[in-house]
UniProtKB/TrEMBL annotation:
Any matching Pfam family: NAAA-beta
Keywords: Disulfide bond, Glycoprotein, Hydrolase, Lipid metabolism, Secreted, Signal, Sphingolipid metabolism, Zymogen
Pathway: Lipid metabolism; sphingolipid metabolism; Sphingolipid metabolism
Main location: secreted
PANTHER family xref list: ACID AMIDASE, ACID CERAMIDASE
Enzyme class (EC, first level): hydrolase
Organism phylogeny: Eukaryota, Metazoa, Ecdysozoa, Nematoda, Chromadorea
Protein name: Acid ceramidase
Gene Ontology MF term list: fatty acid amide hydrolase activity; N-acylsphingosine amidohydrolase activity
A GO cellular-component term linked to this record: lysosome
Similarity annotation: Belongs to the acid ceramidase family.
Active-site residues, record numbering mapped to chain: 144
Signal peptide positions (record): 1-18
């Protein structure tokens, strides 16, 4: 809507005319900038260190107690940014109407998520409708870049930038989106345990029970990107009738996959077929390659698979656009991302090399919350909270 575009319209003049532009570089200082040949940015001191053990055999209150204690106040503050947006652009009563829509939703969630979200509300003291909104919000409003690349020895790495917060209150003093900044403080790392053993490692937002980025050590990795398009019909049906039989929220399906399917092939079969509430891209890596799965609500529309025999077939990269459609002009991340990967080249694929690409504009932008680099074989996720310093494109 025009209301949602208002921040963009207000911001564009300062961006487009802040630096001299040329026909070859129409965005001036805000143009794409590949760092593949620049000095290394990898810095061990920036890697997030704390990991929370999440025992899937535990009662929900015990399962989430430490996370709720550490992040409760930050969850509430971050959710209030959505309230500010609703009040500003939706008018009086918009926030209350939004929470009203969430009133009966917790009981419509499948187990174990229904019990866990109620436990999280008990532990944090946050209104359960607010927590439900946090859990549903990612189904309808997110953007990302993910890639999987194979080095010359056949070792596979998975990189992802999580972008979230575009249009949610531009902070004119900090030059950032308030929601993006708030979500940086909610990034949490989990080690999911069952029967006393590690199942998988994951990076997500505290308070959200689904999974955004993860690895099953020595087996497979995954990340999820938005597939743009309306979810109005499926969301309306959910609020009126609940989930259809076998249907899942995308991020909950990710967690179910990681919990129940130990091998890549088993996981792939599940995630390609389970009915979703929202469309999406599932980017997966494994010991011998990787792929982008383009998901519709009820099946898989397309697969892009690593094939080193093909030109540039040693990697796959996905932003938020279909394989046969270009990025919109104001959100061109696919072309710069591919150019930067090709500039890096297969010979320089490594955790450090992938991090250079993920830190390059426009892959890195004002909505970027974090970057994760995954070594599948070692079962290691290195996560960096990211902030794109000026001059930096706003999407």
């Amino acid at each position: 809507s025009r209301m949602a575009l208002l921040p963009l319209l207000l911001l564009l003049p300062s961006l487009l005319f802040a630096a001299p532009n040329t026909p070859e570089n129409p965005w001036g200082e805000y143009a794409a900038d590949c760092l593949a040949d620049q000095p290394p940015l990898w810095d061990d001191t920036r890697i997030m260190q704390k990991w929370y053990k999440i025992d899937l055999d535990a009662e929900p209150h015990e399962m989430w107690r430490e996370v709720a204690t550490d992040f409760g106040p930050t969850m509430d503050t971050t959710i209030d940014i959505v309230k500010t947006m609703a009040d500003t652009f939706g008018g009086e009563g918009a926030w209350e109407a939004l929470l009203g829509l969430m009133k009966d939703t917790p009981d419509m969630l499948p187990e174990p998520y229904k019990s866990e979200i109620k436990a999280m509300a008990d532990l944090t003291g946050i209104q359960i409708e607010k927590l439900t909104l946090l859990n549903l919000f990612y189904e309808i409003a997110k953007a990302c870049t993910s890639l999987v690349a194979m080095d010359e020895q056949g070792k596979v790495f998975h990189g992802r930038n999580l972008d979230f917060g575009l249009f949610f209150v531009w902070n004119t003093q900090e030059h950032t989106w308030d929601l993006t900044r708030g979500l940086r403080e909610l990034v949490a790392q989990y080690e999911f345990m069952k029967d006393g053993k590690l199942l998988f490692k994951a990076v997500t937002f505290a308070g959200h029970l689904g999974i955004l980025t993860a690895v099953r050590p020595g087996q497979y990795s995954m990340s999820t990107d938005t597939r743009f398009g309306s979810t109005l019909d499926t969301l309306t049906n959910f609020f009126l009738n609940g989930l259809d039989p076998d249907q899942e929220f995308l991020l909950y399906a990710n967690r179910d996959m990681l919990t129940n399917y130990p091998t890549f092939e088993e996981a792939r079969v599940f995630i390609e077929g389970v009915p979703f509430l929202a469309r999406g891209y599932i980017i997966m890596g494994h010991m011998k390659g990787g792929m982008v799965i383009t998901r519709s609500y009820n099946g898989t529309d397309h697969e892009a698979i690593i094939d080193p025999k093909q030109k540039n077939g040693w990697y796959v990269l996905e932003t938020n656009y279909d394989w046969d459609k270009p990025d919109i002009f104001l959100d061109d991340r696919t072309i710069p991302g591919n150019k930067c990967m090709q500039q890096l080249g297969r010979k320089r694929v490594s955790k450090e090399g992938i991090f250079q690409v993920m830190s390059s504009k426009t892959t890195l932008n004002k909505a970027t919350v974090y970057t994760s680099i995954i070594d599948i074989e070692a079962g290691v996720i290195n996560t960096f909270k990211q902030e794109c310093k000026d001059p930096c494109w706003f999407v």
